[in-house]
Structures are given as structure tokens and as C-alpha cells.
Amino acid sequence: MQIHFGLHLDAMIPAPPRTAIGEATVGPQGLLRMLESDLGLAPVLDHPAERLIAYRGCLAAADGPQRFYHRSFQVDPINVTATLASWREQWYEAGWTGAFPAGLPARLTDLADVERLARERVPPCVGQRLARVLDALETRRTQIETLVLHGDPAALPLLWRCVLERIGYQAAPGVHAAAAPPQSDLGRVQARLATLSEGEAPARLELSGDGSFVVVRAASPDVSARAIAEWLRSRPDPDTLLIAEQNGIIVDNAMERSGLPRCGFQHYSRFRAVSQVLKLALGLLWEPLDPHLLLQFLIHPVGPVPAGLRRTLAEAVARQPGVGGAAWTAALERLEERRREKGAGRDAIDAERALVTYWFESPRHDPAAGAPLAVLVERAQRCASWLVGRLAAATEPVERALFAGAHAQAGAFIAALGQLRDQGRERLPRIETERLVDEVTRDQPDPALFAEVGHVRATTHPGNVTRPWRRVIWWDLKAQNQSFGYPWSTSELAALQEAGVALPTTEERLAQRAAEWLQPLFACEAQLVLVVHHGDAGHHPLWTRIASLFDGWAEVDLEQALLAGRDPLLPQLEVDTEPVAVKTLPAPRRWWELPPEVALPPRPVESYSSLSKLFHYPHGWVLGYAARLRTGRAEDVADQWLLYGNLAHRLFETFFREHPDWATLTETAVFRWLQRALPRLVAAEGAVLLERGRGVDHEQVVTTLERALLRLLEHLRAAGVVRVEPERGGRAPFLDGGMEIAGSIDLLLTTGSGREIVLDAKWGGEQYRARDLEQNLHLQLVSYAYLRQCAADGGRWPYQAYFIVTTGNVVAPDDTVFPDALVHAPAEGIDVARLWRAAEATYRWRRAQLDRGLIEVRTDAAEPTERSEPPEGTLPLRDGADRYDEFARLTGWDPFA
Amino acid sequence: MTGEARHDYAHVTFISAGAGSGKTYRLTQELEKALTEGGIAPSAVIGTTFTVKAAGELKERVRSRLIESGRIQLAEQMAQALIGTVHSVCERLLQRFAFELGLSPALSVMSLEDGQRFFNQALDDVLSLPRVREMNALAARLGQEDWQAAVKAVADKVRENDLGPQVLPAMARESADAMLGFFGAPRPGPTRAQLLRTVEDALARIDPDVDATATTRKYLATLRQARHRLRREDCPWSVWIRLACERAAKASEPIAAAVRDVAAQYESHPALHDDVRRYIDSVMEIAGRALERFAAIKTEHGLIDFLDMEQLTLHALDQPAVRERLAEELELLMVDEFQDTNPMQLALFVKLAALADRVIFVGDVKQAIYAFRGCDPDLVFRTLEAMTRARAEADKLPYSWRSRPALVHYVNAVFGAAFAEEIPREQVVLEPKRAEPSAEPAVVCWKLAGGRNKESRAEALAQGIVDLVASGTPIVDPGSGALRPVSWGDIAVLARTNDNVQLLARTLKNRGVPMKMTLKGLLETPEVCLARACLRRLNDVTDTLATAEIVSLADSAEPEAWLADRLAHLGACDPSGSSADGETPQPAGHTWGEDRHPIVRRLAELRAESALHSPVEIVARVLNDVGTRRIVTGWGPDAIKAAQRQRNLDAFLDLAVKYEDHCAAHHQAASLTGFLFWLEKPSSPELDLQPVVTSGDAVHVLTYHRAKGLEWPVVVAADFDKGDPSSIWDVRVLTGPFDVSRPLENRTIRFWPNLFGDRSNNLPVLERILDSDEGRRWRRGHEAEQRRLAYVGITRARDLLVLALPSGAVKSDRWLHTFAPPWAVPAGERLDLPDGPALASALRELDGRGEAPALPPYRPRWFPRRERIRHPRLYLNPSAAEPLPGTAPAAEVDLGGRLPVGGDDMAPVGSALHAVIAAEIVNPGRDDAVERARQILEAYGAAAWLRAEDAVQAARRLRAALERRYPGGRFRVECPVSHLRGDGSVVRGVADLLIETGSGIVIVDHKSSPRPRAEWHAEALAHSGQLALYRDAVQAAGYRPLALAIHFAIGGGLVFLELGS
Ligand code: SF4
Question: A310-321 pLDDT, tens per residue?
């Protein structure tokens, strides 16, 4: 067997593929597996999390107040375990035997004590496996015939060096000589860098800019990647190597956009949607319910509850954040009805209901006290069995890989819970549960990313460049910010050395690293392209070296050149570009004019809200009611005033429905009812208020609501109201031609004298309502009044007023009905009938405009025109733009927005 | 030197570096010298800078100088130097000493907004509902809008000054005593009912028909409102205060005066005293309790914030183990921008200094401008004084390298005098080093017309800039040093507040002046709106509003076009019958765009993959696939804005990264929905900032604070006519006696709630406060801060300083007068400095009229649009190959019967068998074969299903049979096979077993299928494709394939195949 081995060759291999039998290029992981297979050693197959959990057990078993890790371990066992495990793994690879002689610094002796347990209980780490391999090599053979080492043997950890020496290896020729023509910029750079000698001040070298050494600068990695891809496209050369240490996926995305094959850069993430389901599902178990989390679960692309069911519930939750409220119940009823229509049997319906009960209505647990392990296990098992189903149904290997990963994660979680149960635990608090899930959720590669036929050769490590290439691109040469140096003190390092743990010094490691950086530079024969991005974090040390020694290379700043329209971007680098037509953003315009063939027909039924839009903000009516543009479900979880207002309405509605006898109730009785009803209402329809950290908000809303109801009752009594109908619906003909207007009156009151009152409850904005009354802008009250007037067959118009929840005040045109009202009225008094006629006239005016395809856009950005002026006899229009215009992004932009 | 705090600071040097005095150069030089001449190892250096960027630059400069002097290795070792912002240095130290300190070794630093969230949680936890009610009511009476914010502010101050909650009760008492002291002793006075009666009386007596003035009408409205509120028990004190201040018109004044008399007695109202005292007590008490809970929550979550980092590090330095190690390792401590260290950092540096062999503090006390962030310049002054007394060396950089001589003289004269009280003149003045570039004026005053109208004044200022550039005034190019006409990018406009920055920027922009600034509102920029709309549409197909936004933005389409299309689509849609899965019907017309619009179509495709990806991956995909960058380039309208748009898209992607980091730190699930929620509430204003575009020839508009550390050829200093925005209310720190080794001792928190809102006139209480010692001290501190800020702004100019002032006189209480004597504002062509040279100056009157500048046209280019091509996979796995038709079994060899095997999942058994066979073939016939096999079976979890003896038996009998059949053959197990095919694809796999014989290669593949012998043929044929691929590879590699076989390891047989073609 012919082996090529290098410290960084487990990932992408720069050498082009070829036909061969018995040849392999491998990194440490690959070689170790090969050796173990040849030598008949059992492989190590445990989930990485299991190793940590086992080591954590050892740390716990050896723990005591005198241990150096004791306090940290109590605070964060998981990260302490990970840190210390990495210590011992480094030591083993550097030749540790697992024990220390007596008298060493305390931290080392502590870990040697732990190791007595760990050696038995923790699956072996790389160093231990190498030691085993070395052992086996004494008596057994491998299939390896030749082994070529790429890179400096001194860079290998001790045990690797031992293994290689035992097997025998030859060094790859390497590229320490300058490869480019000596007179070219590149050649001169190489020569200078190769001959730098310590202590000798080098003179600065002026390059000619001949294009053999090119620097591409960019603000955005996306843009530089695209430029590189376009260059590779217009100037293909198979002898090109691309280095991208991190974020190679950006390069590949750009390749794809340029129509080139992907190199197969991998991207690791622990947040892929599939692997988040377990965490979301577990999150639903905690008190108080978190409506945002619930929505996340409901809208997630996948999950153990059927998508259609989730979608329906999502809508309900967005409207009334909570579980079990009116919207929730209605949604479930609707679902059931639809099932029945489709001929589903009782069993199927019950099964679906049970699903809802289990996932969303199960008892929730106190986060600090924790949930019973059995509950957690059941949840995880439910997820697991859903995943098994998906796995079975998945056809694409990509999907299978992901579902399998998520399944393994659920399995590991269940196993870990098992261990905890064995340790005598009964419940697990929320934080621990979440950490445990994190522990089993590892970064996973994206199985949908792979190398494609004909891709440019690429690698993620400069140390892998061990042969000459005609062209080398080093993309994203950036500052190296990882901290250097060991976590151990000088005396600990000395003690380790003495105990046979042969760690290279930091200086050696730095020198090593610096030498690796030079490899791609030396390996390049004709053209080297360095891609550097602007940023605050500074530059790559190699870049600093170059910038300190040379001047005058060919360079382009991409965004600047592109936006300045420079062509070519850089003569030395052929990147295809083309002019972009400048299309400034659509400007705000006061009038939209639809062509005659596009009709905006009237709607058969209008409501107060739709009319108000039509009158004041016709574009809002057109987009919302005619074009039916809707925002998504996750966009607006009801909150703040919108939610509080809804809660107030629902509170009043429930109260008056349950209490036809409200007039005789004592304040105490009302208060007692509030104490019961409010918490239920908030949990079911306003659960955002229960989220942690919103206690003060919650309290303010509750106090306000309590006070408001009591005040409302005072007002009603003072006005001699005898009957209250909450949410009283109504419908009446509107204009002629069969149109109707419909609406629901918050509170329809009737006084002892038989007078009807339309009372509309508003959360706040007392002054705003007052102004509405003064300026005849209270179309809402007027339209409700109209509904009642029609119901009374054109009889008397009812009285109208606002009730403001936050202040407990009634705002009315006079104090004849509500003696304690805040009085606001237009100077000339209110004539409802005339107002209603004005409303009809306004409708006709707007309608006539729409019939001609004219839509007025009343925003601040566009000046009114003559047409904007309403004719005589119409309602006054509100000043200014719609403050809550959900279509604001469609009504034009400042060109510099 | 590990023991006691040291009282000798001879190893400390403080380098006083006035503006433009070459601080960076000196710092670099000092560090380089320490490394080379001083022989200090980089790993023994700790250095802090004010920004991440400054840290990177310092390191790089030093590295560069080392390389230039041939010290290559030392340059590499700079990686070990601990140079960064205070916080990053603290973070590293805490990491290094995590175990000594009992901390998590992987501390997660939480963002400000998370801090706020956790603090709110802590508040929830420590407050009972009745208490919240009580506080709400109390705060409402006192007109305190957000008492939780006050609690947080107190809590922050407690932490900033390293105090404990236990000190709060006493401080609360002192605060209340001091504040109420100005109100006069409580004594019985008019009750609410009495005031109400007075008001009602006044209402009855003022006849609006008699006194119809606007003033009285307003006064009556006030009275009416007051009446309504006074009737209620919870009437707020602001009603009293207001009635004590308001006036009526002359005719009704006597009546109003009577009301005022009654209302003014609020000052000594016992109930008010009671409320104020209770409020102060409660806020501070709650703060104390919340702090404890807050700390517990953070520990639980393993999170710390910036303040914790400083505090933990400070306390870490009290631990002997830590001190010892640092004393051993730390040789050089360098602190840049020393004047801007907050109290805790200062204490930290004092402690660290005691452990270092050599200490360099660099800074300029004249440039301390962060009092509003909790810095205390006074503390810095006192520390430096004390250290100097204890033998620390004070060094001053004497020259100005930045500004032309005329400006240096100007600054010397103005600020030499302005700082005289705090700083001796010789500490202020610099000696110019640059040559005078031209005879052009150095200081110019622009008188901006427009009176009190800010917008008009901004117009005038914009005109000044347009005229300046049009005039071609020569400046010195900072890069080349050559004289050239001034250009947009040479100019900075400094404003006092962010709002004014926005106003000036808007005005410049509307004038067509190329301009850049730190803009807010990243999330509402059209480019980010487009990206968000795409994500919304991807996440929820029913978001038709998102579709409309995409269509409108992506094509810069006029509404008529897409609206007509949308209406047509609706006309053709019948939502009732069309739900994809029979659940909720989708809203009408949701598939709009999918058929025709390329972006909407692509998003629909991506949706199918969204289960596979993380939020960051989705965002990156969407930005890339939708072609956002090209679209926004087309928007322009100029190159600078287009560059900004590009940066905004980067910032948006970065937000997704931050979101995932946030989820990781909080152990939360991350999802696209979650990301969209997160964007809905940009809880931290930082997240909503647009990145600053550094490139481009554009005027830079920014605040004085942000200008720190920067320079421009021309600086236009605006807003010197502003007043002091700070107020004595809310939370402050008072200082007592000072001890340099314990700089945080004797600090007291004052908390005075503001009962008066924006009102500042006619308030006797406020006048008394400002007239008191405490008030005067507070005011002096603020004036000094204003002066320093002016110094920072004015010294940014290299060649030309413009003072932009309103055309009228500037009132005496304004910023200008905190530092500038009358002669400092140019009144003509010559400005005479007292006892100094005269300099060329100018005065210009600007009225805002003028032409827009002519700018080059915007003609951008971008990369071409390309077809999306799906290239085939490069690597093919043979085991996935389809069976080869026409294949037939050629021969069958019996290996000796079926092995006993159990279990229903054969995969682990199969893998284990493969491993055992490989081991046995490479090292045949070993004694420990069975033992090893057992270990292998265990590792695969197959030990219960197959006996080790049997596994070894399977291997041995196979080997024996094959050796018999191919005597002398060379066996290779688990053999890598790679075949580069004509179409460029590569078949890559590992063949189970190859036998090289003289006449060719035999290819064997193991199967662990437990099926009966009768089914072998069918099973073998199923794997023919795989064998065929191996055969092709062998052939392509230049060998002759001799035979192909499937080995039934469990069943005990070999089936040879004759492949079809
Ligand atoms: S848009 Fe939606 S509702 Fe309308 S026809 Fe298409 S699928 Fe059906």
C-alpha cells in the first residue's frame, strides 16, 4: 500500500485525483484507522459526547474540595470536562503514560489521580490509540509499503513521530526553493523571503506590478469570492490551487453562481433545522409557556406534529399568544370539522386531538425544580420515533444523513438521561437539560455539499501545499486571533517535560506555523493571488511580512473598482464584468394609476376598518383588501398595545357574558372574579406577558385591566345603563346596489330610558380620541351607530362614546349621558346623520377614483395634488401618513434610503 | 514583588500625549524597544488599547518594524503578546486563571441586551406582585416613567464602582436627606382637596369671554385637566408642580397667582417628602436585591458581561496564586488612552502595575470625554498625581506632528487658557513640527443664517462645504504630503448629538454632497428589507406581503406593474379547494410569483431544503442565490451609497452569525423563525447600525465623541452654540478622600429622581440645588468635560478649522463659552492671539443658497449573470452502484457451513466481520486472534450476536480457500481504489479484498447476509454493479481483472460472477 500522509490531509486534498489501486492520501484520522484495521485493533466508535460524559464521571468521582478544578467544575461541569479532556489528550499524544511521578505541581497530580479512573472508564483517545498501535507494531505487520510524509516531521506530536519512524517513511520533496522566474515580481518576492536571515535588516523592494503577484482587496468576502470565480472561469488552468482556510463555502457559493463546479468545501453547523427539533420540543415542557418558542416549533420546517396542524395552530398563537384561548379552541374546532367533512373517523380525530394534548397541553414544569426524567425521556423518544419514520421515508442520501444524525442525537440524549437516572437523579432542571442537549448536538457537516466534477483544486490548509503549482490563490488571508501558548504555567511545563510529555515549545510551534504559511508562496510558479479583506481585526502575519518588505505589486480594491465602473478591474487579472443598468428605487408617488383593463371592483361587504382605510389611505385598502397582501404568521405576534387592547376586549366580553347581573355585583365580587379570570385569560391569550423578565409589564397590564373594569362599571351605573351586550355584531345595507357594512360593537349599552349607547373601548390614546371627536374623525363610532340606527329601522341614532382603558375615562361629546365623561366635541356639535351622509359621500368620491384606476398614496414623502382635496360634503381626512402602515415598504423610497 | 500593594511607582512612566503629538509612533517605539533592547519576551507583555482596531494596528506596526530590522522570529512571536482592548485582555486572563478563580474555562460573554433581559428576570424574581403595584403607584405619583430603569442605573453604578449591595441603604438615606434638604422641612400645608377647591374656584372666576387670550385659554385647559386629576386619590405631584409654575394672561393673573401660592407648597408637603424618600429607598433597595439575583442568574447560565469581566479580573489579582504567576510572567504593562479608563479599569491597572517590572501609561487628560459612560476623569487625575508623587516618571510628547503651525498656535492659546484651572499651561502647549503649507486661513468662522431654525442653519453649513470644495482651497494630502485642492473626503463635520449628525447628513445628502456617516436603521434599509422579505417568504409561503416587497424591490418596479399582476393572479385563484395537505386552506393567491418571478421561484426551491440548513446557511444561500448584490448595485444612486448597501448586506449576514452565537451562549434552539423574531426586536441599538464605509470621496459626518483618534485636513466644528445636555438628576457618583492603592474607596452613589421633567424655569428647588456646593461641583465637572470635548474636536484638523456658528450671538451658557474667549472666533482676515503670532483667518456669512455640486456620473459594473448549472458529483461510491444487467454466477465455493449468528440488525455484525477478516488476513494465524476478534466485536456492539471464535473461523476458512485457489497470490485487504473516468468523475472506494496473482487480480467483496444458500445467487447479482466498478478501476490502473467474487462470510460460501457488459 502506498500512503501519503500529512497532518492536515484528513480534509481536502490538493492533489488531483488519479486512477490507482492501493494508494491513499490520509491525515491522522485516516492513517490511525488504517493501522488499527491492519493490526487487528478494535476501533473506537463511541459518540464523542460519550467520551466526555465518561470523563466527566471520572472528574466527579475524584472530585473534592482540594482539587484544583473543584469550584469551576461545580459551576460548569461540561466545559471543565472538555477543557481537561483536551489537556490529557494533548499529553497522551506527546507521550504521556497516564501517570506522574510524585511531587509535581498540584494540577498535574490531580489529573493523574483522575486518570487512574479515566484509563479504565473513558474510551481511548488518539494518543492512547497510538500507544496501542506502537505496541502492536512490535509483533504485527501492516500493509503499508511506502509512506510519504508531507510536511515537517518536527511538526508532528511525539507519538505520531514514533509511529512513522517505526513504519519507516520518506519525506515529500517539499517546496522550499523559489519556483517562479527570478525576474518576475513573484520570483523576487520568493527570493527575498527565502533569503531573509535573522538579524539582517532587509531593504525594501519595489516590485514592477507585472501581475505575477496580485493582491485583491475587498470589503466583502462574497464579492471577492465571486471575482475569483469569474477569473477562474475566464482563465481556466488545471494547475491552479485555491486555499481557503475558513468559510470556503462562500467560495463555493460564488463558484456555483458563476456556473463553475463546487470545490466541496464543507460547512459545519449545529443549528440545522432537523437537529433543533429536540430542543424546541423539550422547550415546550417548561413553565411558563413561551409563545415565541411555541411559534418557532409550530413554524419549523419539520417536526413530530403534522405540518398542516402546526400551521393552523400557528395562526391562532400569533393572534392570541397562548394555549387554550379562544383562537386556539376555534382553530381546533375548525380542524375537527374539516376532518369530519373529509370523512375521518372518531378514532383519527381523537388521535389528532391526543397529539395536540401531548405536545402542547401537557403539564409544564418549574424550570428550577426540573422535569421528571421520565417526562424528558418520553419527549425525546417521541422525537426519536418520528425521526425513525422520516428516516425510513427519506430517499435522498442527504436527507437520510441528516435525519440519522438527529436520531443519533436523540439517542445520545436518552442514554445520558439513563446515566443520570443510574446516578440517582429524578428530575432535571431546565438549564441542565438544555446543556445536555447541547452536549449531544455536535457541529455537523452539510451532506448536501460535495465536490463536483471539474472543480478547481483546493485545500483548507497552507501546510498541505507540498508541490509546485502554476497558480495559487490564497483567499481571505486574515488576522490570526486564536490565542497562542499553553494553558500551563512555566513550572508545570517543565514538570511535564520531565515526566516525558514532550510538547514542542510555543516558539517552535510559531516558527512551524510561519514556515507553513510560506509554503503556498514558494510553491507558486507563475501567478500568486492574495485576497485580503478590510476589517478592524488587523492582518495575517504573512501579510504584514509582505507589506513590510515590498511595494508596488498589482492590486485592486474590488468594490471601489466595480462601483466606479472600472474596466478591466485590474489589467493583470481577467475578471468578466458588465455594466449594470442603474434603476433607482421606486420613488414615492402620490398617485398610482392603474391601466383601464385592471379593475378594482367594490367589495360586497365593507367594515369600519376597511372604510377607514379607503377614505384616509386608499393604497392601504387596495393592497390589503383588493390585493389581499398579508404578512406571514411569524411576523406579528400580538404584543404591546395591540395585545393589551385585545385582552381588555376579551375581559369585558367575558365579564358581561358571565354577568347579566353586573349591575348588582359588589366591587368585592367583581374583584374576586377578576382574580380568577385574569390569570386564565393571560395564560390563554396573552402569554407573552408571562415570559421571564416581563413581570413588571404583566403587573401593569393586570392592574390597568382591573381598575378599568371597575371604572367602567361606575360609568355604566352613573349613566343608568341596564343592559350590556358585548361584541354585538351587526350588518346593514350600505349605499345602494346591494352593498353592506358589517361590524362588531365592543359594548352596546341600553339605558333605563331605552336609549342605546355605542361604547368603544380603546387601550390608550385618550388625547387622540378626544381629537377625533373634536374633528369629526370618529368614523368608527358613527358607523356603529349607523348599524344600530338601521336595526331600529331608521329610528333614533344611538349615543356614542369611547372608553379609555388605561385612564378609566369615558371620552364623550358631552356629559349628558356619562356625568364623569371627559368632554370633547366639535365647536358646532355633532350631527351623526350628517356625518354618516358625509361618509357615504367620501366613499363615492374614493370609489370614483378607484374606478378610474386612481389610487392615492397618502404618505409624507409625496405632496398632495389637486385631486387629493376632498370635495364638499365629505368627511375630513386625517393629517399625515398612516402611522402603522404595514405597506410602507411598498410606497416608494428616498433614493438614498 | 508579589506581596503588598506597592507604594513606589518608579517603574511607571506616564506619557502625556497631546492631540497630534505622535502617540502611536511613540507607543510602537516603546514596545519595540522593550522587545529588542529590553530583551522582554512578547509573551511577557500585556497591552491595552481603546479599540480592537488600535490593538491590531499596534501589533502590526511593531511586527512590521521588527521585520524591517531583520528580527523575523521576534516578529512571529508577537502572536504571544497579550495586546487587546481591556475586555479582551480581561477575558484572556480570566480564561488563563479560570480554575484558580473557580470560573468556567469557557466563559460566554453576553451582550448588553441580554444583560438587560437577565436583569429584568432578576427583578421579576425579587419583586412580589404587591411590591410591583406599590412601586408602579409610587412612580406614577412622582412622574417617574420607568422606575425599573432607575433600579438598573443604580445597580450598574454599584457594579461599576465595585461596591456591594450592602452599602445601598446608607446611600439611599444620604441621597434622600440631601435632596429633600433643598425642599425645606416638611410641614402641614394645603391638602389635595384644598388645592382642588382653589382650582375649581379659579375656574369659576376666570371668564373666557372676558379674558379670551390664548395664554389664558391654555391656562384654563391646564386648570380643567388639573381638576380632573386632583379629584382622584392617585393624583401625581406633577399637577402641583405645574400649577405652581403656570401663568395666565395679565387680566387673570391675580387668580392664577392665588393658585400658584397654594400649589407651591408642594415643596414642604409631608406626603411628597414621604413619597420621595420611599421612592429613593425602594429603588436602591430593589437594586441591591436584584443585583444579587442577577449575579446568580448569570452564574447559572455561565454568562458574564463586560463589567463582570473587569470586576472578576480585579478580584483575581487579589489571589496569591494569580499574583504569583503574573509577577513571574509579566514584565511590561502598557495602557493606551489611559484617560478613558473607567474607575474599575483604573483600579485594575493600578493593581497590575504593581506586578509588572515596567509600566507605561499613555494618554491625554485633556481628551477624557467618557464621563457619560461612567468614566471619572477626576479619578484619573488623582491617580496620576499620586503616582508622580511616588516617583513615577512623567513624560510629555512636546511636538505636534498633525496640525499646521497656525493651528497649533491657535490651540495652544485657546486651550492653554481654557484648561488653566486644571492643567498647567506647559502641559497643554505643543510645538509645531510641520511647515506652514500656505497662506490660506487656518481658522475660519462660518456664520450660519437661519436663526433658530436648525434646518436652515444646516442648509447654510452645507452650502459652506459645497463652496469650500468649489473654491479649490489647497490642503496637504495626508498620504503624499503634496499640496492639492480640497476634496469631499478631506472634510469632517462634527456634531454634538446623533440627532444633529442625522440632520446634517440629511441636509448634505439632499444637496447632492457625497457624505458618509454612522447610520442607524440597518434593518429598515431597502437592501436589508429585500433580504428579510426573501427570508420571510422562504419561511412562510403565505407571506404575500413579502412577495410584493421582493417583486417591488428586486426590479425597482413601479407599483402599477406588480399590482396589476397580483390582481390578475388573484382573479385566477380559487383558494377554497387548494390546500396542499388538506389542513387550513392557504390564504388566497399565496403562490403568486412562483411561476414567473425568478427570485420567488428560487425561494420556493430553497424552501424544500430549509430543513437541512441552519439560519446562517440559509441567509448566506439566499443572499447569494437571489443575486442581491447586483440588484442593490443597480439602486445606486451613487457609488458611495452603493458601497454602503454592499456593506449592509455583509452586516446582515453577520447578524445571522450573531444570532446563532446568541443561541449558543443561551443554549437555545436556533431557527429561521427565531432569527426573524430576533430581528423584529433589535434589542440592542448596536445591532441596527449600518457599517461605516471607509472608502470613497465623501464628507464624513460624525459626533465629537466618535471623532476621537481620527484626523482630517478640514474639520467643520458645529454645535458650539448648544447647551449642556446633562442634568443633575438620576444617578451620580460622589467622591471622597483618595488613596492610589485603593482608588475605588470612598465613592458614594447619589440617586435623585427628577420630579420636574423638562421644566427648569421658575423652580426654586432646582435653583437652590444648583447654587449649593454639590450643585456647583457638579457643574464645574461638566464644564470641564465640555472643554475637553471641544479640545478633542478642534484638534482633529490638520490644515483648516471651521467654526460653524449661528449668525446671531451665542448665549453665555452655551458650549462655546466653556472654552473660547471672544478673540478665538475669527471676525475677519486676521486673528490676533494674545501674546502670540497673528494668524490668517476668515469670516463667511452663509445663507444656504447656492448651487449643487457637479459630481461624476454613476456607472457601475458587476459580474455577469450566469446560468445555474448543476455539475455532477465528483466522487462516486461503488457500493451505491446499480446491478449490472447480464451478469451471471460463474462458480460457487463452499467454505464450510453457516456460522451461528443472532440479532436483527446485521450492520454491526457485518462491520465487525470485515474488521476481523482484515486483521486475520494481514497477520494470519496469531495466537491472540480470537481475543482481538472479541474486542472488535465488542467495539461494534456485535459481541452478543456472533462469537469471536466463529468470526476468526470465517476469516481463516476464506483465506485457506483462496490460497488454495490462487496459490502464491498477494492479499490486500481494505484496499483503496480510485478510478478517474473519462467524464471527469472519480469512482472511489475501499475494496474488501484484492488478490494479486501472476495472471491478474481477483476482487472479493464480503457480505454478512445471513440468507440461506439458495438466495446467494440473487444476492450476489445485486452487488454486480459494485464489482463492475472495481473491475473497471483495476483495469484502468493497468492490471488484468482475473475474477470477481462475493464472499458470504456468515453463510460460508464464495460466489464467482461473470459480469455482463
Ligand atoms: S395561490 Fe394558493 S390558493 Fe390561489 S390557486 Fe394558487 S395555490 Fe390555490
Answer: 988 998 998 899
